[in-house]
Write a structure and sequence with these properties.
Number of helices: 20
Low-confidence stretches: 592-601
Structural class: alpha+beta
Oligomer: single chain
Strand order of the largest sheet: 5-4-3-2-1-6-8-7
Mean pLDDT: 91
Largest sheet: 8 strands, mixed
CATH topology of the largest domain: Nucleotidyltransferase, domain 5
CATH superfamily of the largest domain: ATPase, nucleotide binding domain
Helix content: 25-40%
Number of strands: 29
Strand content: 25-35%
Bound molecules: adenosine-5'-diphosphate
Number of domains: 3
Shape: elongated
Length: about 600
Protein backbone atom coordinates (compact mmCIF):
# COMPACT_ATOMS: atom_id res chain seq x y z
CA UNK A 1 0.00 0.00 0.00
CA UNK A 2 1.26 3.53 -0.77
CA UNK A 3 0.50 6.14 1.87
CA UNK A 4 1.18 9.85 1.59
CA UNK A 5 2.29 11.37 4.88
CA UNK A 6 1.89 15.08 5.47
CA UNK A 7 3.91 16.82 8.16
CA UNK A 8 2.88 20.42 7.88
CA UNK A 9 4.54 22.83 10.33
CA UNK A 10 4.12 26.58 10.64
CA UNK A 11 7.05 27.26 8.32
CA UNK A 12 7.96 23.88 6.87
CA UNK A 13 6.40 21.02 4.96
CA UNK A 14 7.46 17.40 4.59
CA UNK A 15 5.60 15.09 2.21
CA UNK A 16 6.57 11.45 1.83
CA UNK A 17 4.95 8.70 -0.16
CA UNK A 18 5.74 5.48 1.66
CA UNK A 19 5.45 1.95 0.35
CA UNK A 20 4.25 0.25 3.53
CA UNK A 21 5.48 -3.13 2.36
CA UNK A 22 9.13 -2.15 1.86
CA UNK A 23 8.78 0.66 4.44
CA UNK A 24 10.70 2.95 2.07
CA UNK A 25 9.84 6.39 0.72
CA UNK A 26 9.20 6.44 -3.00
CA UNK A 27 8.70 10.20 -3.20
CA UNK A 28 10.04 12.83 -0.80
CA UNK A 29 9.33 16.53 -0.76
CA UNK A 30 10.76 19.08 1.66
CA UNK A 31 10.02 22.79 1.90
CA UNK A 32 11.47 25.06 4.58
CA UNK A 33 11.25 28.71 5.65
CA UNK A 34 7.76 28.97 4.20
CA UNK A 35 6.12 31.04 2.86
CA UNK A 36 9.19 33.17 1.88
CA UNK A 37 11.34 30.44 0.34
CA UNK A 38 10.56 29.45 -3.27
CA UNK A 39 12.98 26.54 -3.60
CA UNK A 40 11.48 23.18 -2.74
CA UNK A 41 13.32 19.86 -2.71
CA UNK A 42 11.62 16.97 -4.50
CA UNK A 43 13.52 13.68 -4.45
CA UNK A 44 16.78 15.58 -3.91
CA UNK A 45 16.21 17.99 -6.82
CA UNK A 46 15.23 21.64 -6.54
CA UNK A 47 11.83 22.72 -7.74
CA UNK A 48 11.04 26.42 -7.88
CA UNK A 49 7.64 27.81 -6.97
CA UNK A 50 6.78 30.93 -8.90
CA UNK A 51 3.28 31.78 -7.65
CA UNK A 52 2.05 34.08 -4.90
CA UNK A 53 3.93 33.61 -1.62
CA UNK A 54 0.90 32.44 0.34
CA UNK A 55 1.05 29.31 2.46
CA UNK A 56 -2.10 27.53 1.13
CA UNK A 57 -1.02 28.10 -2.49
CA UNK A 58 2.43 26.68 -1.83
CA UNK A 59 0.90 23.65 -0.10
CA UNK A 60 -1.30 22.95 -3.10
CA UNK A 61 1.68 23.36 -5.42
CA UNK A 62 3.73 20.86 -3.38
CA UNK A 63 0.91 18.30 -3.21
CA UNK A 64 0.34 18.61 -6.97
CA UNK A 65 4.08 18.06 -7.51
CA UNK A 66 3.95 14.85 -5.47
CA UNK A 67 0.82 13.73 -7.34
CA UNK A 68 2.62 14.18 -10.63
CA UNK A 69 5.71 12.38 -9.38
CA UNK A 70 3.58 9.37 -8.41
CA UNK A 71 2.84 8.72 -12.12
CA UNK A 72 0.92 5.42 -12.21
CA UNK A 73 1.29 4.58 -8.48
CA UNK A 74 -2.00 4.77 -6.61
CA UNK A 75 -2.00 5.96 -3.04
CA UNK A 76 -4.55 4.48 -0.64
CA UNK A 77 -4.73 7.25 1.93
CA UNK A 78 -3.08 10.22 3.57
CA UNK A 79 -1.66 10.29 7.10
CA UNK A 80 -1.32 13.69 8.74
CA UNK A 81 0.86 14.55 11.69
CA UNK A 82 -1.39 16.52 14.03
CA UNK A 83 0.38 18.00 17.01
CA UNK A 84 -2.42 18.47 19.52
CA UNK A 85 -5.28 16.02 19.98
CA UNK A 86 -6.13 17.35 23.45
CA UNK A 87 -7.95 14.90 25.70
CA UNK A 88 -10.01 13.50 22.93
CA UNK A 89 -7.78 11.24 20.87
CA UNK A 90 -5.83 8.28 22.22
CA UNK A 91 -5.30 6.76 18.78
CA UNK A 92 -5.22 7.83 15.12
CA UNK A 93 -8.59 8.63 13.55
CA UNK A 94 -10.16 8.97 10.17
CA UNK A 95 -10.70 12.68 9.58
CA UNK A 96 -14.29 13.77 9.08
CA UNK A 97 -15.91 17.16 9.64
CA UNK A 98 -16.20 16.52 13.37
CA UNK A 99 -12.52 15.57 13.75
CA UNK A 100 -11.43 18.61 11.73
CA UNK A 101 -13.59 20.80 13.96
CA UNK A 102 -12.01 19.33 17.10
CA UNK A 103 -8.51 19.97 15.75
CA UNK A 104 -9.62 23.54 15.12
CA UNK A 105 -11.07 23.85 18.62
CA UNK A 106 -7.67 22.84 20.00
CA UNK A 107 -5.88 25.76 18.34
CA UNK A 108 -5.82 27.55 21.70
CA UNK A 109 -3.59 24.81 23.07
CA UNK A 110 -1.29 24.63 20.03
CA UNK A 111 -1.51 28.02 18.31
CA UNK A 112 1.51 27.46 16.07
CA UNK A 113 0.97 23.84 15.13
CA UNK A 114 -2.71 22.95 14.80
CA UNK A 115 -3.57 25.71 12.26
CA UNK A 116 -0.69 24.51 10.06
CA UNK A 117 -1.80 20.89 10.44
CA UNK A 118 -5.33 21.91 9.42
CA UNK A 119 -4.03 23.74 6.34
CA UNK A 120 -2.25 20.52 5.36
CA UNK A 121 -5.46 18.53 5.78
CA UNK A 122 -7.52 21.01 3.73
CA UNK A 123 -4.97 21.16 0.91
CA UNK A 124 -4.70 17.34 0.78
CA UNK A 125 -8.49 16.99 0.64
CA UNK A 126 -8.55 19.41 -2.25
CA UNK A 127 -5.74 17.80 -4.28
CA UNK A 128 -6.76 14.18 -3.52
CA UNK A 129 -10.54 14.55 -3.11
CA UNK A 130 -11.48 10.87 -2.81
CA UNK A 131 -8.86 9.56 -0.42
CA UNK A 132 -9.25 8.88 3.30
CA UNK A 133 -7.30 11.32 5.51
CA UNK A 134 -6.06 10.05 8.85
CA UNK A 135 -4.89 12.19 11.76
CA UNK A 136 -2.01 10.80 13.83
CA UNK A 137 -1.64 12.85 17.00
CA UNK A 138 1.63 13.71 18.77
CA UNK A 139 -0.28 13.73 22.04
CA UNK A 140 -2.14 10.42 21.62
CA UNK A 141 0.52 8.12 23.07
CA UNK A 142 0.54 10.14 26.30
CA UNK A 143 -3.17 9.74 27.01
CA UNK A 144 -2.20 6.96 29.40
CA UNK A 145 -0.33 9.32 31.76
CA UNK A 146 -1.59 8.76 35.29
CA UNK A 147 -3.37 11.71 36.92
CA UNK A 148 -0.45 12.42 39.23
CA UNK A 149 1.79 12.99 36.21
CA UNK A 150 -0.83 14.76 34.13
CA UNK A 151 -1.86 17.50 36.54
CA UNK A 152 -0.13 20.71 37.46
CA UNK A 153 -0.41 21.83 41.06
CA UNK A 154 -2.54 24.87 40.32
CA UNK A 155 -6.05 25.99 41.18
CA UNK A 156 -8.47 23.30 40.06
CA UNK A 157 -11.11 25.65 38.69
CA UNK A 158 -8.58 27.36 36.44
CA UNK A 159 -7.09 24.08 35.22
CA UNK A 160 -10.56 22.83 34.39
CA UNK A 161 -11.63 26.05 32.70
CA UNK A 162 -8.68 26.02 30.27
CA UNK A 163 -7.88 22.31 30.23
CA UNK A 164 -4.46 23.05 31.68
CA UNK A 165 -2.63 19.76 32.04
CA UNK A 166 0.30 17.83 30.67
CA UNK A 167 -0.43 16.49 27.19
CA UNK A 168 3.13 15.65 26.09
CA UNK A 169 4.33 15.53 22.48
CA UNK A 170 6.64 13.50 20.20
CA UNK A 171 4.30 10.60 21.04
CA UNK A 172 4.50 9.04 17.57
CA UNK A 173 8.29 8.97 17.79
CA UNK A 174 8.48 7.70 21.40
CA UNK A 175 6.01 4.92 20.64
CA UNK A 176 7.80 3.92 17.44
CA UNK A 177 11.32 3.78 18.91
CA UNK A 178 10.14 2.05 22.10
CA UNK A 179 8.63 -0.73 20.01
CA UNK A 180 11.81 -0.86 17.91
CA UNK A 181 13.84 -1.28 21.11
CA UNK A 182 11.62 -4.14 22.27
CA UNK A 183 11.83 -5.83 18.85
CA UNK A 184 15.61 -5.41 18.80
CA UNK A 185 15.95 -6.93 22.27
CA UNK A 186 13.42 -9.64 21.33
CA UNK A 187 11.35 -8.81 24.37
CA UNK A 188 7.71 -8.05 24.92
CA UNK A 189 7.47 -4.26 25.32
CA UNK A 190 5.16 -4.86 28.30
CA UNK A 191 8.09 -6.34 30.24
CA UNK A 192 10.40 -3.36 29.77
CA UNK A 193 10.83 -0.06 31.60
CA UNK A 194 12.03 2.25 28.84
CA UNK A 195 13.42 5.78 28.96
CA UNK A 196 13.13 7.27 25.50
CA UNK A 197 15.19 10.44 24.86
CA UNK A 198 14.01 12.20 21.68
CA UNK A 199 16.70 14.83 21.09
CA UNK A 200 16.04 16.83 17.96
CA UNK A 201 15.35 20.54 17.60
CA UNK A 202 12.47 19.81 19.93
CA UNK A 203 13.43 17.44 22.73
CA UNK A 204 11.64 15.34 25.28
CA UNK A 205 12.12 12.31 27.46
CA UNK A 206 9.35 9.80 28.00
CA UNK A 207 9.06 7.03 30.60
CA UNK A 208 7.36 3.96 29.14
CA UNK A 209 6.10 1.14 31.32
CA UNK A 210 3.96 -1.80 30.15
CA UNK A 211 4.24 -0.26 26.66
CA UNK A 212 2.44 2.87 27.86
CA UNK A 213 3.66 6.41 28.38
CA UNK A 214 3.58 7.22 32.10
CA UNK A 215 5.69 10.41 32.21
CA UNK A 216 6.85 12.88 29.59
CA UNK A 217 8.82 16.07 29.91
CA UNK A 218 6.84 18.19 27.42
CA UNK A 219 3.72 19.54 29.05
CA UNK A 220 0.65 21.50 28.07
CA UNK A 221 2.61 23.32 25.38
CA UNK A 222 5.78 22.39 23.56
CA UNK A 223 8.00 24.40 25.92
CA UNK A 224 8.52 22.42 29.12
CA UNK A 225 11.28 20.05 30.13
CA UNK A 226 14.58 19.54 28.36
CA UNK A 227 16.76 22.23 26.79
CA UNK A 228 15.84 22.43 23.08
CA UNK A 229 17.16 24.10 19.94
CA UNK A 230 15.53 27.46 20.59
CA UNK A 231 13.25 26.65 23.55
CA UNK A 232 14.29 27.02 27.17
CA UNK A 233 12.58 23.96 28.61
CA UNK A 234 12.06 24.24 32.37
CA UNK A 235 12.42 27.69 33.89
CA UNK A 236 11.29 29.10 37.20
CA UNK A 237 7.81 30.56 36.41
CA UNK A 238 8.92 33.54 38.49
CA UNK A 239 11.29 34.49 35.65
CA UNK A 240 8.29 35.08 33.40
CA UNK A 241 6.65 37.60 35.70
CA UNK A 242 10.02 39.13 36.53
CA UNK A 243 10.75 39.79 32.86
CA UNK A 244 7.26 41.08 32.20
CA UNK A 245 7.83 43.58 34.93
CA UNK A 246 11.45 44.53 34.25
CA UNK A 247 11.32 44.59 30.44
CA UNK A 248 7.68 45.61 30.25
CA UNK A 249 7.09 42.66 27.90
CA UNK A 250 3.73 41.51 26.60
CA UNK A 251 2.88 37.82 26.77
CA UNK A 252 3.80 37.50 23.07
CA UNK A 253 7.25 38.88 23.80
CA UNK A 254 7.74 36.48 26.69
CA UNK A 255 6.60 33.61 24.51
CA UNK A 256 8.96 34.55 21.68
CA UNK A 257 11.78 34.85 24.21
CA UNK A 258 11.21 31.39 25.69
CA UNK A 259 10.25 29.68 22.41
CA UNK A 260 12.60 31.21 19.88
CA UNK A 261 15.44 32.97 21.68
CA UNK A 262 16.35 30.49 24.36
CA UNK A 263 17.66 26.95 24.48
CA UNK A 264 20.90 26.11 22.68
CA UNK A 265 20.50 29.14 20.40
CA UNK A 266 19.94 31.56 23.27
CA UNK A 267 22.79 30.24 25.39
CA UNK A 268 25.37 29.82 22.64
CA UNK A 269 24.56 32.97 20.71
CA UNK A 270 25.20 31.32 17.34
CA UNK A 271 22.24 29.22 16.37
CA UNK A 272 20.54 26.04 17.41
CA UNK A 273 22.56 23.44 15.50
CA UNK A 274 24.19 21.08 17.96
CA UNK A 275 26.95 20.25 15.46
CA UNK A 276 28.08 23.90 15.41
CA UNK A 277 27.83 24.17 19.17
CA UNK A 278 29.95 21.07 19.69
CA UNK A 279 32.52 22.43 17.23
CA UNK A 280 32.66 25.81 18.94
CA UNK A 281 32.97 24.17 22.35
CA UNK A 282 35.93 22.22 21.06
CA UNK A 283 37.43 25.49 19.85
CA UNK A 284 37.18 26.79 23.39
CA UNK A 285 34.01 28.86 23.24
CA UNK A 286 32.75 29.14 26.81
CA UNK A 287 29.13 29.90 25.86
CA UNK A 288 28.99 26.76 23.73
CA UNK A 289 30.50 24.72 26.54
CA UNK A 290 27.96 25.99 29.02
CA UNK A 291 25.08 25.36 26.59
CA UNK A 292 26.20 21.73 26.25
CA UNK A 293 26.62 21.36 29.99
CA UNK A 294 23.15 22.68 30.73
CA UNK A 295 21.66 20.54 27.93
CA UNK A 296 23.22 17.29 29.16
CA UNK A 297 22.85 18.04 32.88
CA UNK A 298 19.12 18.66 32.42
CA UNK A 299 18.72 15.35 30.62
CA UNK A 300 20.75 13.42 33.20
CA UNK A 301 18.59 14.95 35.91
CA UNK A 302 15.41 13.83 34.14
CA UNK A 303 16.78 10.31 33.62
CA UNK A 304 17.34 10.04 37.37
CA UNK A 305 13.88 11.38 38.12
CA UNK A 306 12.09 9.14 35.63
CA UNK A 307 14.08 6.11 36.78
CA UNK A 308 12.71 6.85 40.24
CA UNK A 309 9.16 7.11 38.84
CA UNK A 310 9.47 3.62 37.32
CA UNK A 311 11.53 2.22 40.22
CA UNK A 312 14.27 1.35 37.75
CA UNK A 313 15.12 1.27 34.06
CA UNK A 314 15.71 -1.59 31.62
CA UNK A 315 16.33 0.38 28.42
CA UNK A 316 17.72 3.86 27.86
CA UNK A 317 17.36 4.91 24.25
CA UNK A 318 18.52 7.93 22.29
CA UNK A 319 16.83 9.10 19.12
CA UNK A 320 16.28 12.06 16.71
CA UNK A 321 19.04 14.26 15.24
CA UNK A 322 21.21 14.66 18.35
CA UNK A 323 20.31 11.35 20.01
CA UNK A 324 21.02 9.35 16.87
CA UNK A 325 24.18 11.13 15.78
CA UNK A 326 26.08 12.52 18.72
CA UNK A 327 28.27 10.08 20.69
CA UNK A 328 29.63 13.07 22.62
CA UNK A 329 26.22 14.05 23.99
CA UNK A 330 25.22 10.44 24.75
CA UNK A 331 28.50 10.00 26.60
CA UNK A 332 28.08 13.15 28.68
CA UNK A 333 24.49 12.22 29.59
CA UNK A 334 25.35 8.68 30.70
CA UNK A 335 28.41 9.69 32.71
CA UNK A 336 27.74 9.25 36.40
CA UNK A 337 24.66 7.09 35.90
CA UNK A 338 26.51 3.86 36.72
CA UNK A 339 24.64 3.72 40.02
CA UNK A 340 21.49 3.06 37.97
CA UNK A 341 23.20 0.25 36.05
CA UNK A 342 23.75 2.52 33.03
CA UNK A 343 27.19 1.80 31.55
CA UNK A 344 28.09 2.98 28.08
CA UNK A 345 30.66 1.18 25.92
CA UNK A 346 32.84 4.05 24.62
CA UNK A 347 33.94 2.27 21.47
CA UNK A 348 30.49 1.06 20.51
CA UNK A 349 29.12 4.52 21.25
CA UNK A 350 31.69 6.26 19.07
CA UNK A 351 31.41 3.82 16.19
CA UNK A 352 27.59 3.58 16.08
CA UNK A 353 26.57 5.01 12.70
CA UNK A 354 22.86 4.68 12.14
CA UNK A 355 21.69 4.32 8.55
CA UNK A 356 18.96 2.71 6.43
CA UNK A 357 20.75 -0.59 7.01
CA UNK A 358 21.44 -0.09 10.74
CA UNK A 359 18.50 1.53 12.51
CA UNK A 360 19.31 0.29 16.04
CA UNK A 361 22.73 0.17 17.69
CA UNK A 362 23.46 -1.36 21.07
CA UNK A 363 25.98 0.94 22.72
CA UNK A 364 25.92 -0.51 26.22
CA UNK A 365 28.87 -2.09 27.96
CA UNK A 366 28.38 -5.82 28.30
CA UNK A 367 28.19 -5.39 32.10
CA UNK A 368 25.55 -2.69 31.85
CA UNK A 369 22.31 -3.80 33.52
CA UNK A 370 20.45 -1.24 31.42
CA UNK A 371 20.51 -1.68 27.66
CA UNK A 372 21.55 1.60 26.06
CA UNK A 373 20.45 1.94 22.45
CA UNK A 374 20.70 4.52 19.69
CA UNK A 375 17.64 4.18 17.47
CA UNK A 376 16.68 5.89 14.27
CA UNK A 377 13.25 7.41 14.57
CA UNK A 378 11.01 7.62 11.53
CA UNK A 379 7.90 9.63 12.25
CA UNK A 380 6.77 9.55 8.60
CA UNK A 381 6.93 5.77 8.50
CA UNK A 382 5.18 5.52 11.88
CA UNK A 383 2.40 7.79 10.57
CA UNK A 384 2.11 5.76 7.36
CA UNK A 385 1.84 2.49 9.29
CA UNK A 386 -0.82 3.91 11.60
CA UNK A 387 -2.76 5.27 8.62
CA UNK A 388 -2.50 1.89 6.92
CA UNK A 389 -4.10 0.19 9.95
CA UNK A 390 -7.05 2.58 9.85
CA UNK A 391 -7.50 2.15 6.09
CA UNK A 392 -7.38 -1.64 6.36
CA UNK A 393 -9.91 -1.53 9.19
CA UNK A 394 -12.14 0.72 7.10
CA UNK A 395 -11.93 -1.61 4.10
CA UNK A 396 -12.61 -4.61 6.30
CA UNK A 397 -15.61 -2.89 7.85
CA UNK A 398 -17.05 -2.37 4.39
CA UNK A 399 -17.09 -6.09 3.64
CA UNK A 400 -17.92 -7.72 6.93
CA UNK A 401 -21.37 -8.29 8.36
CA UNK A 402 -23.33 -5.80 10.40
CA UNK A 403 -23.92 -6.61 14.04
CA UNK A 404 -27.52 -7.14 15.17
CA UNK A 405 -28.36 -5.17 18.30
CA UNK A 406 -30.50 -6.54 21.12
CA UNK A 407 -31.84 -4.57 24.04
CA UNK A 408 -31.29 -6.41 27.24
CA UNK A 409 -34.03 -5.78 29.83
CA UNK A 410 -33.28 -6.23 33.55
CA UNK A 411 -32.87 -9.89 34.43
CA UNK A 412 -31.40 -12.35 36.88
CA UNK A 413 -29.12 -15.39 36.62
CA UNK A 414 -29.45 -17.79 39.55
CA UNK A 415 -27.52 -20.63 41.15
CA UNK A 416 -28.99 -24.00 42.05
CA UNK A 417 -28.87 -23.08 45.77
CA UNK A 418 -30.77 -19.83 45.30
CA UNK A 419 -33.49 -21.48 43.18
CA UNK A 420 -33.86 -24.10 45.94
CA UNK A 421 -34.63 -21.36 48.47
CA UNK A 422 -36.80 -19.16 46.24
CA UNK A 423 -38.86 -21.90 44.56
CA UNK A 424 -38.36 -25.03 46.65
CA UNK A 425 -35.77 -27.83 46.71
CA UNK A 426 -34.78 -29.16 43.24
CA UNK A 427 -37.31 -26.92 41.50
CA UNK A 428 -36.70 -26.90 37.72
CA UNK A 429 -37.11 -23.59 35.86
CA UNK A 430 -39.47 -23.82 32.88
CA UNK A 431 -38.73 -22.25 29.49
CA UNK A 432 -40.86 -19.29 28.47
CA UNK A 433 -38.92 -18.61 25.25
CA UNK A 434 -35.45 -19.27 23.84
CA UNK A 435 -32.96 -16.40 23.70
CA UNK A 436 -30.85 -15.59 20.68
CA UNK A 437 -27.69 -16.99 22.29
CA UNK A 438 -27.77 -20.77 21.78
CA UNK A 439 -28.86 -22.78 24.85
CA UNK A 440 -30.07 -19.75 26.78
CA UNK A 441 -33.70 -19.07 27.58
CA UNK A 442 -36.04 -16.73 29.43
CA UNK A 443 -37.85 -18.65 32.16
CA UNK A 444 -41.51 -18.40 33.01
CA UNK A 445 -40.43 -17.76 36.60
CA UNK A 446 -39.76 -14.29 37.96
CA UNK A 447 -38.66 -12.88 41.32
CA UNK A 448 -39.12 -9.62 43.16
CA UNK A 449 -35.97 -7.68 43.97
CA UNK A 450 -35.78 -5.31 46.93
CA UNK A 451 -33.20 -2.53 47.30
CA UNK A 452 -32.69 0.06 50.05
CA UNK A 453 -35.25 2.44 48.54
CA UNK A 454 -37.72 0.44 46.46
CA UNK A 455 -38.55 -2.94 45.03
CA UNK A 456 -39.09 -4.12 41.47
CA UNK A 457 -41.52 -6.96 40.90
CA UNK A 458 -41.48 -9.81 38.40
CA UNK A 459 -37.89 -9.61 37.22
CA UNK A 460 -37.32 -12.32 34.61
CA UNK A 461 -34.95 -15.20 35.38
CA UNK A 462 -32.70 -16.30 32.53
CA UNK A 463 -31.60 -19.91 32.28
CA UNK A 464 -29.69 -22.13 32.45
CA UNK A 465 -28.47 -21.98 36.06
CA UNK A 466 -25.06 -20.45 36.72
CA UNK A 467 -22.27 -20.84 39.29
CA UNK A 468 -22.92 -17.30 40.66
CA UNK A 469 -26.09 -15.27 41.25
CA UNK A 470 -26.08 -12.12 39.11
CA UNK A 471 -28.66 -9.33 38.89
CA UNK A 472 -28.35 -7.12 35.79
CA UNK A 473 -30.14 -3.80 36.01
CA UNK A 474 -30.08 -0.43 34.26
CA UNK A 475 -28.94 2.93 35.66
CA UNK A 476 -32.56 3.99 36.09
CA UNK A 477 -33.22 0.82 38.12
CA UNK A 478 -30.10 1.51 40.16
CA UNK A 479 -31.40 4.90 41.33
CA UNK A 480 -34.91 3.55 41.88
CA UNK A 481 -33.73 0.60 43.98
CA UNK A 482 -31.09 2.61 45.86
CA UNK A 483 -28.12 0.37 45.07
CA UNK A 484 -24.76 1.51 43.80
CA UNK A 485 -24.12 -0.95 40.98
CA UNK A 486 -20.87 -0.73 39.01
CA UNK A 487 -20.62 -1.18 35.25
CA UNK A 488 -19.11 -4.63 34.89
CA UNK A 489 -18.60 -7.50 32.56
CA UNK A 490 -20.85 -10.46 33.29
CA UNK A 491 -19.29 -12.75 35.93
CA UNK A 492 -16.97 -10.05 37.37
CA UNK A 493 -18.75 -9.59 40.67
CA UNK A 494 -16.03 -8.86 43.24
CA UNK A 495 -16.99 -5.85 45.33
CA UNK A 496 -20.43 -5.46 43.76
CA UNK A 497 -23.40 -4.67 46.01
CA UNK A 498 -25.96 -7.25 47.14
CA UNK A 499 -29.77 -7.20 47.04
CA UNK A 500 -32.73 -9.12 48.41
CA UNK A 501 -34.56 -11.63 46.19
CA UNK A 502 -38.08 -12.75 47.05
CA UNK A 503 -39.56 -15.89 45.47
CA UNK A 504 -42.80 -17.76 46.11
CA UNK A 505 -41.14 -20.11 48.60
CA UNK A 506 -38.48 -18.02 50.27
CA UNK A 507 -36.14 -15.03 50.43
CA UNK A 508 -32.41 -14.81 49.65
CA UNK A 509 -30.22 -11.90 50.70
CA UNK A 510 -27.41 -11.74 48.15
CA UNK A 511 -24.12 -10.33 49.48
CA UNK A 512 -22.97 -9.36 45.99
CA UNK A 513 -23.99 -9.71 42.39
CA UNK A 514 -25.76 -6.52 41.24
CA UNK A 515 -24.22 -4.99 38.10
CA UNK A 516 -25.00 -2.75 35.20
CA UNK A 517 -23.81 -4.87 32.30
CA UNK A 518 -20.96 -3.42 30.25
CA UNK A 519 -22.25 -3.19 26.71
CA UNK A 520 -20.85 -6.14 24.83
CA UNK A 521 -20.83 -8.10 21.63
CA UNK A 522 -21.23 -11.87 21.65
CA UNK A 523 -19.12 -13.43 18.93
CA UNK A 524 -18.39 -16.91 17.73
CA UNK A 525 -14.61 -17.43 17.18
CA UNK A 526 -15.26 -17.38 13.42
CA UNK A 527 -16.86 -13.89 13.75
CA UNK A 528 -13.90 -12.72 15.84
CA UNK A 529 -11.52 -13.84 13.13
CA UNK A 530 -13.54 -12.06 10.47
CA UNK A 531 -13.62 -8.82 12.46
CA UNK A 532 -9.95 -9.18 13.48
CA UNK A 533 -10.71 -8.90 17.20
CA UNK A 534 -10.22 -11.14 20.21
CA UNK A 535 -11.94 -11.82 23.51
CA UNK A 536 -11.92 -8.74 25.79
CA UNK A 537 -10.96 -6.25 23.08
CA UNK A 538 -12.71 -2.93 23.33
CA UNK A 539 -14.35 -1.60 20.18
CA UNK A 540 -16.63 1.17 18.97
CA UNK A 541 -19.84 0.39 17.13
CA UNK A 542 -21.60 2.86 14.88
CA UNK A 543 -25.32 2.65 14.31
CA UNK A 544 -25.95 4.16 10.95
CA UNK A 545 -29.21 5.98 11.46
CA UNK A 546 -29.54 8.47 8.61
CA UNK A 547 -30.92 11.24 10.78
CA UNK A 548 -28.76 10.58 13.78
CA UNK A 549 -25.64 8.46 13.29
CA UNK A 550 -24.51 7.26 16.68
CA UNK A 551 -21.36 5.67 18.09
CA UNK A 552 -21.28 3.33 21.07
CA UNK A 553 -17.77 3.47 22.52
CA UNK A 554 -16.22 1.02 24.99
CA UNK A 555 -18.02 -2.08 23.82
CA UNK A 556 -16.34 -5.26 25.06
CA UNK A 557 -15.94 -8.28 22.81
CA UNK A 558 -16.87 -11.68 24.25
CA UNK A 559 -15.87 -14.69 22.23
CA UNK A 560 -17.13 -18.23 22.78
CA UNK A 561 -18.07 -21.10 20.52
CA UNK A 562 -21.44 -21.00 22.29
CA UNK A 563 -22.13 -17.44 21.13
CA UNK A 564 -23.91 -15.99 18.13
CA UNK A 565 -23.08 -12.52 16.74
CA UNK A 566 -25.11 -9.94 18.65
CA UNK A 567 -24.49 -6.72 20.55
CA UNK A 568 -26.28 -6.20 23.87
CA UNK A 569 -27.10 -2.80 25.27
CA UNK A 570 -29.39 -2.15 28.20
CA UNK A 571 -32.84 -0.57 28.16
CA UNK A 572 -31.58 2.87 29.20
CA UNK A 573 -29.06 2.95 26.38
CA UNK A 574 -31.63 1.71 23.89
CA UNK A 575 -34.13 4.35 24.98
CA UNK A 576 -31.59 7.17 25.03
CA UNK A 577 -30.41 6.27 21.55
CA UNK A 578 -33.92 5.53 20.26
CA UNK A 579 -32.76 2.10 19.18
CA UNK A 580 -34.97 -0.96 19.12
CA UNK A 581 -33.93 -4.60 19.12
CA UNK A 582 -33.25 -5.69 15.55
CA UNK A 583 -31.29 -2.63 14.42
CA UNK A 584 -27.73 -3.16 13.26
CA UNK A 585 -24.35 -1.67 14.03
CA UNK A 586 -21.00 -1.50 12.27
CA UNK A 587 -17.73 -2.26 14.01
CA UNK A 588 -15.62 0.87 13.77
CA UNK A 589 -12.39 0.52 15.67
CA UNK A 590 -10.63 -1.80 18.00
CA UNK A 591 -7.75 -0.86 20.23
CA UNK A 592 -7.69 -1.12 23.98
CA UNK A 593 -7.71 -4.17 26.14
CA UNK A 594 -10.33 -4.36 28.85
CA UNK A 595 -7.80 -3.68 31.62
CA UNK A 596 -7.08 -0.29 30.04
CA UNK A 597 -10.75 0.48 29.88
CA UNK A 598 -11.24 -0.39 33.52
CA UNK A 599 -9.47 2.89 34.33
CA UNK A 600 -11.94 4.88 32.27
CA UNK A 601 -15.10 3.25 33.53
P1 LIG B 1 13.63 18.13 14.26
O1 LIG B 1 13.06 16.98 13.49
O2 LIG B 1 13.11 18.27 15.66
O3 LIG B 1 13.70 19.42 13.52
P2 LIG B 1 16.10 16.61 14.10
O4 LIG B 1 15.69 15.33 14.69
O5 LIG B 1 16.42 16.68 12.66
O6 LIG B 1 15.16 17.79 14.53
O7 LIG B 1 17.42 17.06 14.92
C1 LIG B 1 18.05 18.25 14.65
C2 LIG B 1 19.22 18.40 15.61
O8 LIG B 1 20.08 17.28 15.47
C3 LIG B 1 20.05 19.64 15.34
O9 LIG B 1 20.39 20.26 16.56
C4 LIG B 1 21.29 19.06 14.70
O10 LIG B 1 22.40 19.84 14.95
C5 LIG B 1 21.41 17.75 15.46
N1 LIG B 1 22.35 16.84 14.79
C6 LIG B 1 22.26 16.26 13.59
N2 LIG B 1 23.39 15.53 13.32
C7 LIG B 1 24.20 15.67 14.40
C8 LIG B 1 25.50 15.19 14.75
N3 LIG B 1 26.20 14.40 13.92
N4 LIG B 1 26.02 15.55 15.94
C9 LIG B 1 25.35 16.34 16.77
N5 LIG B 1 24.12 16.83 16.50
C10 LIG B 1 23.55 16.50 15.34
Amino acid sequence: MYILTVNCGSSSLKLDVIDTQTQQSVTELKAERLPEERDITLNGKTLTYSGELLFPYILTFCLEAVKKDLADKTISGIGHRVVHGGDKYYQPVLIDEQVAKTIEDLIDLAPLHNPANLSGIKAAQQVFPNLPNIAVFDTAFHQTLPSRAKHYAIDKEISKKYNIKRYGFHGTSHQYVAQKAADFLQQDIKNLRILSCHLGNGASICAIEFGRSIEVSLGMTTMEGLVMGTRSGDVDPGIVTFLQQKENWTYEQVETFLNKKSGLAGMSGFGNDMRDILQQAENGNEDARLAIQVFTHRLTKYIGAYAAVMSGVDVLLFTAGIGENSPEIRNRVCRGLEFLGIMLDDDKNKSAKLSDELDVANISDENSRVKILAIRTDEQLAIALEAQKIIEEKNKVNCIPKIPIAISARHIHLTRETVDVLFGKDYELTEYKPLSQPGQYAANETVNIVGKKNKIENVRILGPLRPKDQVEISKTDEFFLGVDAPIRESGHLDGTPGITLIGPKGTVILKEGVIIALRHIHMHPSDAELFGVKDHDIVSVEVDDEDRPLTFKNVVIRVSDKFKLEMHIDTDEGNAAEIKSGEEGVLMSCKQSVSLLAKNV
